Each structure stands twice: as C-alpha cells, then as structure tokens.
C-alpha cells in the first residue's frame, strides 16, 4: 500500500466536519464549486487534490499550508515526519500486524466493540463521532474505532494491549484468535 495514501487516509479520519468545511473553503480557487459541494469527507478532497496534482508524496507544500491554516499542527508534524523519513522508511510493517488483528476483531466482536474500546482507554466522544459517521454499519464502526485507537497510541499501539482488553471484556475466544 502506498504510504502517502495511508497518511492521507489517516488525516481524513481525524478531520472534524468543521475542519473539512474549512479545507473546502480554502480550496475554492483550486476546485470548482460543484465538486466542492459534493465532498463529504476528507478522502474525497484529497483524491481531487491528487488528481489535480496539487499534492503528491514528493509535493506536500500545498497540503502543509492547508493544515496550518486549519490549525492542525499535529498533522503538519506527521506530514513533516513522513517527508523526513521518506517512503522507504515509512512504517508500513506496523499496520500489517494490526490489520490482521483488526480483521479478526471486526469479524468477532460485534456490538461489544464499545466495551472493548473503553478498556483500551478510548473516549466516549470519539466513539460517538464514529457512530455518527457510520450510523448503520457496525463493522465500519469497529474498524474505524480500532484505527483511531491505533493512531492515538501511535507506536504504543500493541497487539498485546488488544488481547489484554479483549480478555478484560470476557471475549476470550476472540483474544485467542488474535493471538493465533
């Protein structure tokens, strides 16, 4: 998977509705009004910026300016870190371990996902946002919450923490499957 697309995807997931609105406003001179009105989440905006070659893995100054304008210094620093590390050093091996775990958890946790996320120290507000963004898709709620947890914890997001939390929720069968 392209590390730059993964980075843009994580940015997209962390944008609030107000931040997305601000980004769309800032792009008015670059993107037509009709296209801007159809954008519902950050990934769509980033796709258009990629298509128009306003951003690329080796061309991030426009994206950096956008993020600075909406006061998302955390994302600016992630972007700078991406550029400094370069694509070759991007940590794409870390998510692979988690992806398998996330897949197993999604297939087996179901409605107990909120209890699991509470055990992992995830906030109610973030869970509510995820539910609001995916009101009728339980599996997507689980996936997004686990990815948000992974982003929140960064390098401290460990599979052992997931297993411990699953066991704490008496989801031992799921924990056993994740261990495998």
Automatic annotation (TrEMBL):
Keyword Kinase: no
Pfam families named in the record: Death, DED
InterPro entries, sorted: DEATH-like_dom_sf (IPR011029), Death_dom (IPR000488), DED_dom (IPR001875), FADD (IPR016729)
Listed GO CC annotations: CD95 death-inducing signaling complex; cytoplasm
Keywords assigned: Apoptosis, Cytoplasm, Immunity, Innate immunity, Phosphoprotein
Keyword Transcription regulation belongs to the record: no
GO biological process: extrinsic apoptotic signaling pathway; innate immune response; positive regulation of cytokine production; positive regulation of extrinsic apoptotic signaling pathway; positive regulation of innate immune response
Classification via SMART domains: DEATH, DED
Coarse class of the protein's main subcellular location: cytoplasm
Domain Death, first and last residues per copy: 98-180
Domain DED, first and last residues per copy: 3-81
Record localization: Cytoplasm
Molecular functions per Gene Ontology: caspase binding; death receptor binding; protein-macromolecule adaptor activity
Physiological role: Apoptotic adapter molecule that recruits caspases CASP8 or CASP10 to the activated FAS/CD95 or TNFRSF1A/TNFR-1 receptors. The resulting aggregate called the death-inducing signaling complex (DISC) performs CASP8 proteolytic activation. Active CASP8 initiates the subsequent cascade of caspases mediating apoptosis. Involved in interferon-mediated antiviral immune response, playing a role in the positive regulation of interferon signaling.
Subunit and partners: Can self-associate. Component of the AIM2 PANoptosome complex, a multiprotein complex that drives inflammatory cell death (PANoptosis). Component of the death-induced signaling complex (DISC) composed of cell surface receptor FAS/CD95 or TNFRSF1A, adapter protein FADD and the CASP8 protease; recruitment of CASP8 to the complex is required for processing of CASP8 into the p18 and p10 subunits. Interacts (via death domain) with FAS (via death domain).
UniProt name for this protein: FAS-associated death domain protein
Name of the coding gene: Fadd
């Amino acid at each position: 998977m392209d590390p730059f697309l993964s980075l843009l995807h994580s940015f997209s997931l962390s944008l609030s509705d107000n931040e997305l609105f601000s980004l769309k406003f800032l792009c008015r001179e670059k993107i037509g009004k009709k296209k801007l009105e159809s954008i519902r989440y950050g990934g769509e905006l980033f796709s258009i910026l990629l298509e128009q070659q306003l951003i690329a893995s080796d061309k991030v100054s426009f994206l950096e300016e956008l993020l600075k304008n909406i006061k998302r210094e955390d994302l600016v620093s992630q972007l700078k870190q991406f550029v400094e590390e370069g694509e070759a050093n991007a940590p794409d091996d870390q998510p692979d371990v988690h992806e398998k775990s996330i897949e197993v958890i999604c297939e087996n946790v179901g409605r107990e996902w909120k209890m699991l996320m509470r055990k992992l120290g995830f906030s109610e507000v973030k869970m509510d946002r995820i539910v609001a963004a995916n009101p009728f898709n339980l599996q997507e709620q689980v996936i997004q919450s686990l990815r948000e947890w992974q982003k929140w914890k960064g390098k401290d997001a460990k599979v052992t923490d997931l297993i411990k939390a699953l066991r704490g929720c008496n989801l031992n069968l799921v924990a056993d499957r994740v261990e495998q």
